[in-house]
Design a protein that fits this description.
Number of domains: 1
Radius of gyration: 16 Å
Oligomer: single chain
Largest sheet: none
Number of helices: 5
Shape: globular
Order of helices and strands: HHHHH
Helix content: 55-70%
Strand content: under 5%
Length: 171
């Protein structure tokens, strides 16, 4: 269950990062990926892929930067395709940024993901992993069921409404 907890922890960290980024640049403060839970699953999936790939390259930080940036960019691109083609919504667009690919990914954020990968691999994950590994199984199964249920409800809501604003149940 360490991978589930890593996914959940980094999805929550992504939610916090999105909120902080929006506060700094004056953007949308309500961007998230699930209906009820404060999680951005694209961050959790990206972090897990980075951790899988970085294990082989952890001894050389430039490789972690490159692999991490590429992995997170690939996850971001696939998530954008899923949102657009399966759910009929768009959470972000990088159309005006340099080096963008169909507005789904862009060079500045790919570089940012590379930098964040370094912090994840060398600082955050070593700090959190021991605690995540000790979460009791019943708590893990309950949390997994909750996240999956919210994910399914979110997908249905987005597919039916075609509008990310439908995730905003709070004011």
């Amino acid at each position: 269950m360490i991978w589930f907890w890593s996914f959940a922890a980094y999805s929550f960290a992504g939610f916090l990062l999105e909120a902080a980024f929006a506060a700094v640049v004056g953007g949308r403060s309500d961007r998230k990926g699930l209906w009820v839970l404060p999680l951005c699953p694209v961050y959790g999936a990206g972090a897990c892929l980075i951790l899988l790939l970085a294990g082989r390259a952890a001894a050389w930080p430039p490789a972690v930067f490159l692999l991490g940036g590429l992995a997170a960019t690939a996850v971001e691109y696939c998530a954008a395709l899923y949102h657009e083609r399966v759910l009929g919504v768009t959470f972000w667009s990088y159309d005006g940024l340099p080096g963008n690919l169909q507005g789904k990914v862009c060079l500045p954020f790919s570089l940012a993901w590379g930098v964040l990968s370094l912090g994840l691999v060398y600082w955050l994950h070593p700090l959190l992993a021991p605690g995540l590994a000790h979460v009791p199984a019943p708590v893990s199964w309950l949390a997994l069921t909750t996240v999956l249920t919210d994910g399914l409800l979110t997908a249905l809501l987005l597919r039916c409404s075609g509008d990310t604003a439908s995730l905003r149940w709070y004011r």
